[in-house]
Amino acid sequence: MAAPRGRAAPWTTALLLLLTSQVLSPGSCADKEEVPEEWVFLHVVQGQIGAGKYTHLRLNHEGKIVLRMRSLKGDADLYVSASSLHPSFDDYKLQSATCGPDAVSIPAHFRRPVGISI
Which domain holds residue 90? Predict the structure, then answer.
């Protein structure tokens, strides 16, 4: 049975990759497995999240940032905000709540720090 939208399955394991690119060509897609050569890996986070709980991260890096997340077990969602360090399923600016790999592109003009919740 699937978890409600905005809720992670019990003990969901998520892998979050932070990527940056000064130039992102319109033809490139963040949900593909290959990573364009001009991208730079910034950080990798792996952990477990309980059902109905959030893990909060703070992004200070400038420029356009692409967040890619793959739920290894369950189906975690990704929420991003430039105005709150603790975004949630009902308070966010950008989100990815797909059944499968999640990706969000954070524009360079977003005020830092950016709040990220998984």
Answer: 12-23+39-117
